[in-house]
Amino acid sequence: MTPPVSVVVGAGRAGGSFAAALDAVGWDVSVLHHREVARPESLAGADLVLLCVPDAAVGEVAASMERGPDRVVSHCAGSLGLDVLGDHPRVGSVHPLVALPDPRVGAERLRGAWFAVSGDPLVGEVVAALGGRTVEVPDDRRAAYHAGAVVASNHLVALLGQVERIAAEAGVPLEAFLDLTASTLANVAELGPAEALTGPVSRGDWATLERHLEAIPPAEHDAYLAMAAAAATLAGRTLPPVGGGSVDP
User: Fold this and answer.
1) Residues 126, 163: one domain?
2) 96 and 179 share a domain?
3) Per residue in 37-95, pLDDT tens?
């Protein structure tokens, strides 16, 4: 079966990653700047157009394209539904659940990744070609899905930034904690979040939390207590007043 002729719009991290990954598995892929798609000849013969542009630009770029009855117009924005693609007759979305720091690393990570898909079945062929796994997310749940993705990636990075700052108070480098983070993620994958939870909150050891709050800078307290409250909820406990206050779990 001949792979679809595909056009990736946008040569940034996402666009470069998709283009390189699909090219590596034998797809006929070209990359266009978003201003080029307004010219009808730029999409001649394309079966699939994948918009890898900033979320705020997806609707405008889609609207600038000529409608084609057999062409699938899709995007890779996690928080957007299909309505942003307007009145193109065949539409879809395919959002990878991996971080794409640059096209080389991103292309490798797309192979075998999880993807949230919706719309035309052709986007499923993208995932299949990359050996990935799919989860279908309807439009009315896209924002909740994407919020989960942000917590899983961006908020985790922010938490590790806090680890780095707090560890610096003890003269310990961030690198010393990364194996702990990796093993914790492995535990979550094997056991699920509730069973993987360890530490003072899981034991109801509130005195240790008090010592932590005495030791770390006051600027770190709000974030520490917010996550302690979340851990307490996961453990089926209620976080008591600690550090002169409390956070409702």
Assistant:
1) no
2) no
3) 888 888 989 999 999 999 999 999 999 999 988 999 999 999 999 999 999 999 999 99
The CATH number of residue 32's host domain is 3.40.50.720
Q: Find where tokens 């005195």 sit.
A: 207
How many separate domains does the chain show? 2
Question: Is the distance from CB of 212 to CB of 224 less than 8 angstroms?
Answer: yes
Q: Are residues 26 and 98 in the same domain?
A: yes
C-alpha closest to that of 85 among 63, 110, 108:
63
- Give yes or no for a contact between 209 and 243, defined as CB atoms under 8 angstroms apart: yes
Identify whether residues 10 and 87 lie together within a single domain. yes
Cβ-contact 101, 13 below 8 angstroms: yes
CA separation (Å) from 3 to 71, 121, 236? 14, 14, 51
- How do 48-51 and 133-136 pair as beta strands? unpaired
Please indicate, yes or no, whether residues 168 and 191 belong to a single structural domain of this protein.
Answer: yes
* Type of residue at 70: D
- Between the alpha carbon of residue 34 and those of residues 37, 38, 227, the distances in Å are 6, 8, 41
pLDDT digits (tens, 9 = 90+) for 183-199: 999 999 999 999 999 99
Judged on CB neighbours under 10 Å (0-12, 13-18, 19+), 221 is: middle
Q: In percent, how much of the chain has pLDDT > 70?
A: 97
Q: Do 15 and 124 lie in a common domain? A: yes
In a domain, 247, yes or no: no
Backbone angles phi, psi at 94, to 5 degrees: -145, 110
- What pTM was estimated for this model as a whole? 0.86
Provide the pLDDT for residue 249. 39
**Is 102 buried (19+), middle (13-18) or exposed (0-12) by CB count in 10 A?**
exposed
